[in-house]
Amino acid sequence: MDHSLTLSRGKIADFVACQRRFQLRYREHLPWPIAPLDSHAGEMRDLGYRYHQLMHRHFLALPIEEEVKHVPNLGDWWRVFQKQGPSLPRGNRYPELSMTVPVGRHFLTGRFDLLIIDDDQAHIFDWKTDARPQNKSALQENLQTRLYLWLAAEGASALEENIAPQNITLTYWYVNDPDTVLAFNYDQRQHEANWGRFNQIVNELDALLPLQEAWPLTEDLNQCSRCAYQVYCGRQTGQLELEDWQQEDQQPSQEPARL
Question: How many CB atoms sit inside 10 A of residue 241's CB?
Answer without folding.
Answer: 10
